[in-house]
Amino acid sequence: MKEIPFFFPSGDCHLFGVMHIPAASRRNTAFLFCTPFGEEKLWTHLVYVNFARALASHGYPVLRFDYRGTGDSEGNFEDATLESCLADIRSAIEILKDQSDQTERLGLLGLRMGATLAALTAETLPQISTLVLWEPILNVDEYMQDLLRVNLTTQMALYKEIRQNREALIRSMKDGLTANVDGYEISAEMFEQFSSLHLPRALNYAKANCLIIQIASKQNPSLKDEFLQLGSVYQQSQVLLSIEEPFWKEIKPFYSRAERLYQDTLNWLNQHEHRL
Amino acid sequence: MNIGCKPVVFSNSDGLKLFGILHYPDSQTSKSTPIILLSPGVKYRVAPHRLYIKLARHLTAMGFIVLRFDFSGLGDSEGIVKETTVADFYGTVQMGRYVNDTKAAMDWMQQEFNASRFILAGLCGGAITGLLAGAQDQRVDSLIGLGLPVILDSQHVDHTQYLTTGELKQWREGYLSKFFDFKSWLRLLTFKSNYRVILKIILSLPMGKRIIIPQKPVLSSGSNQTTNFNPLIPSAFERLISTRNALLIFSENDRLYSIYQERFADPYHAILNKYRENYEIYIVKQANHIFSFPEWQQDLFYQLASWLDRHY
Questions:
Q1: What pTM was estimated for this model as a whole?
Q2: A72 contacts in chain B (CB < 8 Å)
């Protein structure tokens, strides 16, 4: 098993990626991992790395990469938009095809916003045969509002008062400023493009074989209707529930692996690999 | 393709591959002392809101070669973190878990660039790692510590787990200096001594080694014996600043600043004053622990650049 770190071009930027190449027994599908947003990307890095290694040990080639303005890639976060993220995924797919010698069957895996972006990408690229969506964000408008609430929390911690409420933050973005969320500068363009996004409304094609996993930290929770609805849009899909802590945010346990999530995903892939 | 940085891989003393990104300046003439950015912890070589990317860009623009890398078990490096809670993990970092990885980074940079002196810089866990590495390794020319923690996050830290040969020597010297002290013998016989350390000291003694009773370390005692104060801080700080330079930057709204003041700067002020010319402290007004607002980052970068300009 080899891991090859490298930079590759995407438009006017160079993106950072790591290619995981299996030692033997290559599977039909090569995977691209799409990362979540902001600090969620950092908290989940080890879970991504270890699952890429796990998939590679099962024979799947995997490419992990950073969108422009995130991780080790070039660019600044404030210059990124929904369009640029999708363009970066498409560039990474070309690299994955090239590096894995796999052009027929490609899979996308994502967590949270990474899952949402993966689902959107699959809409436009028929060669995406497999989609693995871990806790996808469906109502992105609500998510973007939550990000602004993070800004308000920071204001309260610093100034003991809210000096700019959400409406004021949105106004100032429209005036050309950025809204700071945990150190990430969000532009009006990014905010508007993402806020207009909603799954499954944005899905028309939905041909990929799709695994949706709801992540819950409590025993015996029920599957959320919204995930079941998303699953019903796809021609082939399964919606599962994995008991894991919300490892995309600051929690007490040290989370380098998500064993149940890994196992659920691998079991599903192993079943579906036979059919491919 | 020249994008000013490239991925690198090198091994630590346990043979684990460590992953890093090397940034190099545009100009042909670079400064002779490279900077190594030490990971703050879970947020690996990137750091919160990509602070280390922003820092690396500023530092390479000043002519410095910069390495950011992942400690073992973090980021893309090999290795496993066995601790099950983040607090316990941070506790081990604060006790020097990654000092040897830092030395491995210096070894690699020394080979690659023929550099013999290094500037270590880091936020939080990176700052304490830099301090502890600097105390042990004379190749560390200076330390830039952002939000240096002087307490231990974990309640379950094994203080002996990451003791190096040098530290064991220091502990041994401390015990030997108490050889004729009645109270010390009383502690030993009433099971209050740290038997784990004593055992490690005995096991680390080469056969036939001549025992020399040394002078008591200047900063070996303080008023923090019963708190969660990190016992490694005083001697490490003294070892570093007695011969080299340090810039400590704190955020005004970070509890680590007041903790630094109350637990370390105040109790040890008389001794710290001896080396006052060797270290500077700067407080970024209103800032939080991760310097999340751009005006705080600008202030941080400005102070850092000005300090580096004066020293390099």
A1: 0.88
A2: 5, 21, 45-46, 53
